[in-house]
Structure formats: structure tokens, C-alpha cells
């Protein structure tokens, strides 16, 4: 199943994407206000009634929101591919390098990424996002994938100069509209082995990053086990697993996102997350 969140005709909704164009409006058929609450009630099985329901919306009628619009936690992993670790000049970590993103820092598929007025160093980071379906604490690695609802593409956009203000990444990772999440949540049953996935990031059609998920330093089960040791994972939590080498900051010369650029994060078998880039003119 491909579960989407969207805005249509002035209201937020969610549903099942059928084919490339038809949406079954789950917010009109199910007793849950959003995807996160549906996952909390029954995991991906909560969406099963949508399989045989009639589609009432077309993709052209909606604007996409992040698949989980209101996650309790967005846990992001840094330095989790060896080529990226080497380009940063850092030593291999003994434990996952973690930071948090806020929901306001991300947008959905097709929505613009925002270059903040305070910086010209907005960078791309293509990643795989893992969405928790069944919560838990101290989850064993051997059981971890049973807690996954599904997967999505993620652009963990970074404002690099602000990221370097301190040893903590928080400021550079949380400017409004600098990250993207989507286009949909693909149910985990469609991806029995996430290590088989191939990730590619493109800027204006040029390939900037390529990697296999098998190259992760800390695997998805290891990340779930580690994170669930210090915090209770909840349905709808998002775990963003790290970016490969090839980010703009470490190219010579550096490549920063510019107005009118388009960034695509494509994961074979999962989909393509595409976003234009514009200046942030908001207050």
C-alpha cells in the first residue's frame, strides 16, 4: 500500500494512492484524523478497508503533505555511510550520531524547499526514512523490522553554516521548509529487504549521490534497537537513516542549492521525492 497525506479543497486528508493518479480518501472513510493515529490504532492494517473502496480524488486535485504530518519524533542519523564519513574527515563513530528534526522543518512532495534569508548554504541530503508502526522500548535487533510500518524518501536538507555553529546539528537542520518527506509511505510488506534498495539524489537532473542501503554503517535494525533503548518509539515516529557521500558542502567548489533548482531523491522500488527550490520570503 502507498499511503499519502494531502491538502484538497481547503482541508487536510490522507488516503491510499491507487496507480499513479487515483486516491481513496481515507479521511472520509476511516475513524482516524490522520495517518499517525491510524498507525497507533492498528498499524498498516488500519488502512486495509481502503483497498476495495472507490477512489474519489485525482492526484492533480491535491497538494502533497509529508506522509506523517505530525510525528512525535523525527530521529535523524548522521555519518552513516562510509563515503560520507570520509568526505567529512571524521572518524568512524562507535555509536550512531543522532539529531532531531522538527515537523515544521519539512515539506511534502512537490512543495518548495526554502532557502533561508540568513544563509546561502542550503545543501541536499538524500536518505531513506523508516516509519514506526508498532511502538516499543528496548526493541531487540532481531525483532526491529516487525516494528516498521513502511518506508519513504527523505531529503534531510541542511543549512551548513548554521550546522557548524556548534558541535550540535540542531540549528542547521531545522530552518522552516528545508527538508522534504514523501511522496508516500510504502508499506513494509512491499520492501521485505530494505538493504536491497538503491538511492539516488539528483539536482536539476544531474546525479549527485548514489548508494545501496546495504552500505549503511549502522543497519536499520541496529538503529531501531539503539534509539528504542533511550526513548520509547511510538507509531508514526520517523527514523531518517543517513545520507551517502556526494553532498554539496564537500564538492570542489561547493554546490549550494539555488532558486529555481529542483532536487529529486529517488529510491528504486519506493518512488521519487521531487521539490523545487525558492527563496524564503516569509516572516
Question: What distinguishing features does this structure have?
Answer:
283 residues, mainly beta, 12-stranded mixed beta sheet, 5-stranded mixed beta sheet, 4 helices, 11% helix
Give a written overview of the molecule.
48% of the residues are buried. A hairpin with a 3-residue loop joins strand 18 (262-267) and strand 19 (271-279). It contains 4 helices and 19 strands. The protein starts with a strand and ends with a strand. It is mainly β. The mean pLDDT is 96. The strands form 3 sheets. Strands 1, 2, 3, 4, 5, 6, 7, 8, 11, 12, 14 and 17 form a 12-stranded mixed β-sheet that branches.
CA radius of gyration is: 18 Å
* Main β sheet profile: 12 strands, mixed
Shape: globular
Count of DSSP E strands? 19
List the quaternary state of the chains. single chain
N-end to C-end Cα span: 38 Å
Topology:
Layout: E1 2-8, E2 11-18, E3 22-25, H1 35-42, E4 57-58, E5 63-65, E6 74-78, H2 82-88, E7 97-101, E8 106-107, E9 113-115, E10 122-123, E11 126-132, E12 148-155, E13 158-159, H3 160-163, E14 179-187, E15 198-203, E16 206-212, H4 220-230, E17 238-240, E18 262-267, E19 271-279
Parallel strand pairs: 6-17, 8-14, 9-19
Antiparallel strand pairs: 1-2, 1-5, 1-14, 2-3, 3-4, 6-7, 10-13, 11-12, 11-17, 12-14, 15-16, 15-18, 18-19
Amino acid at each position: 500500500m502507498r499511503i499519502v497525506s494531502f491538502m484538497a479543497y481547503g482541508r487536510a486528508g490522507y488516503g491510499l494512492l491507487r496507480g499513479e493518479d487515483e486516491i481513496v480518501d481515507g479521511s472520509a472513510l476511516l475513524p482516524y484524523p490522520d495517518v499517525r493515529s491510524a498507525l497507533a490504532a492498528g498499524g498498516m492494517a488500519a488502512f486495509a478497508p481502503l483497498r476495495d473502496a472507490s477512489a474519489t480524488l485525482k492526484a492533480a486535485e491535491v497538494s502533497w503533505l509529508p506522509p506523517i504530518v505530525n510525528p512525535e519524533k523525527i530521529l535523524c542519523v548522521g555519518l552513516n555511510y562510509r563515503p560520507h564519513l570520509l568526505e567529512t574527515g571524521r572518524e568512524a563513530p562507535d555509536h550512531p550520531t543522532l539529531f532531531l528534526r522538527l515537523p515544521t522543518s519539512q515539506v511534502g512532495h512537490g512543495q518548495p524547499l526554502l532557502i533561508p534569508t540568513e544563509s546561502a548554504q542550503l545543501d541536499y541530503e538524500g536518505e531513506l526514512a523508516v516509519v514506526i508502526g508498532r511502538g516499543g522500548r528496548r526493541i531487540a535487533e532481531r525483532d526491529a523490522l516487525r516494528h516498521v510500518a513502511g518506508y519513504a524518501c527523505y531529503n534531510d536538507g541542511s543549512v551548513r553554516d548554521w550546522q557548524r555553529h556548534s558541535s550540535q546539528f540542531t540549528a542547521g537542520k531545522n530552518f522552516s521548509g528545508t527538508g522534504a518527506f514523501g511522496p508516500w509511505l510504502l508499506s513494509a510488506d512491499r520492501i521485505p529487504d530494505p538493504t536491497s534498495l538503491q538511492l539516488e539524489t539528483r539536482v536539476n537532473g544531474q546525479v549527485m549521490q548514489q548508494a545501496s542501503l546495504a552500505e549503511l554503517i549502522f543497519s536499520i535494525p541496529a538503529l531501531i534497537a539503539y534509539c528504542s533503548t533511550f526513548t520509547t518509539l511510538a507509531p508514526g515516529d520517523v527514523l531518517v537513516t543517513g545520507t551517502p557521500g556526494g553532498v554539496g558542502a564537500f564538492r570542489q567548489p561547493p554546490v549550494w542549492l539555488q532558486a529555481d533548482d529542483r532536487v529529486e531523491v529517488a529510491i528504486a522500488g519506493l518512488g521519487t521525492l521531487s521539490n523545487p527550490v525558492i527563496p524564503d520570503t516569509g516572516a
